[in-house]
Amino acid sequence: MQDRPDYLKQTPSQTAGPYLHIGATPRQAGLDWPHADLGASMISDETRGERITITGCVHDGMEAPLTDALIEIWQADADGIHPGRGDPRGAGDPFFTGFGRCAADAQTGEFRVETIRPGPVPAPGGTQRPGGTLMAPHISFWIVARGINLGLHTRMYFPQDDLSDDPVLARIEHRARIATLIAQELAPGAYRFEIFLQGPRETVFFDI
Amino acid sequence: MSFTERDTTRHPPALTPAYKSSLLRSPQKPLVALPATLSELTGPVFGHEIIGPHDADLTINHARPSHSAIGPRIIVHGRILDEDGRGVPDALIEIWQANAGGRYRHKRDGYLAPLDPDFGGCGRTISDEQGAYAFRSIQPGPYPWPNRANDWRPAHIHFSVFGHAFAQRLITQMYFAGDPLIGLCPIVNTIPDPQAIDSLTARLDMRATQPMDAIAWRFDIVLRGRRATFFENRPEGT
Ligand SMILES: [Fe+3]
Question: Most buried of the four, A8, A50, B46, B111, by CB within 10 Å?
């Protein structure tokens, strides 16, 4: 880290702890809260694109499921444009939020998200150039839980896509570890994504 | 466009043995460095219209009519800033906390202290054009937790902040200046730098304190800043 005396210093992260559901998914936590949980629903009938479901589990170093984890996902729409803020190509599908949040099931640790399959997203530098490099379709994940001091970023890719030219996956030196980022297709449109925090199957996490 | 790198001298490392839950939940392999792509530089927008009239007032947002939560009444306010000191407008701030006795309204919290029927412990707001935010609440109590034989959390409020990009996502905790439990807490001490710990400690703010009503605490949050950069397409580690 360069020394930048004129700058404010970043606020440090702290674990989300075991009770984060009160703040993140109050309805699911059983609170009488006047709003639907944020990120609980990403799509509506008008949303463009192929419907998919993603289920999975976050596992600890003993491969036991975390029953107190929270996952957040962020993704492009069917055309590869991010809804919300920051995409130079426009606002994307107005009927797609791009943002999902799901608390792990308190008994099984399973999360489940209903969304659409994202389109490919231009790699940095590729936005202004027609035919510029594309990243393979992917969904960004952020994982927080008790025992995780700094939220973990990873990505889910799709098994049927050609991933050989993806510039992000190209950064992973240990090629065998790329498999940890590829979901399994259980049935058409039904994907399974297992996340391992440590151990021989440890998922690739990104410093973004 | 990219973000300044995550300041690893400020954040806790993944593995912090005195905080036992980290033992099996910390990645053991190094993170793969990834210059921010559009997937990290973008983020969801949460409009002010999602905020209900009492969402930021925890003294009443779970209370029965004409009741309010038990405990010392407080205001927690501050600004969401980037590293250049610019306010971050339209940031979503969500908080959760224990009640005045140190008990959470959560099925996994079995602490002896009673629940308060008029306190839920959940609040949210969106920062204004200057990045400012404010909550009303009650002072949370300290509570014991299973870690070593006799560990107690200092009084704290959990904060979740959405800035403008997925790369800015942050969850942290706010402490109260002067709490003697801060220095003893293994979760606080996952942060190696005492100055970084100090930045999580809210300051008493008499100017914003409302006479005969609520004591104010000031807590600013600094998110990663943006910077111009060029993507270098090179393999990890080179
Ligand atoms: Fe807590």
Answer: B46
Question: Is A121 close to B37, i.e. CB distance below 8 A?
Answer: yes
CATH number for the domain including A89? 2.60.130.10
Q: Per the domain annotation, does A148 fall within a domain?
A: yes
The DSSP secondary structure of B47-75, one letter per residue, reads -GGG--TTTTBTTTTTSPTT---SS-EEE
In a domain, A124, yes or no: yes
Domain that holds residue A102: 19-196
Q: Tell me how far CA of residue B4 lies from CA of B167, B192, B222, in angstroms.
A: 10, 20, 12
The mean pLDDT of chain A is: 94
Encoding tokens for residue B158? 């959990």
- Give me the number of domains chain A comprises: 1
Nearest to A71, CA basis, from A11, A119, A159, A139: A139
- The model carries a pTM of 0.95
Q: In degrees rounded to 5, what are phi and psi of residue A10?
A: -60, 140
* Structural domain contains residue A208: no
Torsions phi, psi of B50, nearest 5?
A: -80, -10
- Give chain B's radius of gyration (CA, Å): 19
pLDDT tens digits, residue range B10-52?
999 999 999 999 999 999 999 999 988 999 999 999 999 999 9
Q: Over the stretch A159-188, which tens digit does the pLDDT of each residue have?
A: 999 999 999 999 999 999 999 999 999 999
Segment B68-114, tens digit of pLDDT: 999 999 999 999 999 999 999 999 999 999 999 999 999 999 999 99
Our CA-based measurement puts residue A1 at a distance from the nearest CA of chain B, in whole angstroms, of: 6
Given an 8 Å threshold on Cβ–Cβ distance, is A206 in contact with B33? yes
Sign of the Cα torsion B165, B166, B168, B172 reads positive
Q: Which of B62, B77, B136, B153 is an active site residue?
A: B153
Question: Is the residue at A1 inside a domain?
Answer: no
- Residue A147 tokens read as 């025992």
**Window B:161-180, CB contacts with A under 8 Å:** 164-167, 169-173
Inform me whether the C-beta atom of residue A172 falls under 8 Å from chain B C-beta atoms.
yes
User: CA B122 to CA B96: how far, in whole Å?
Assistant: 5
> Annotated catalytic, B153?
yes
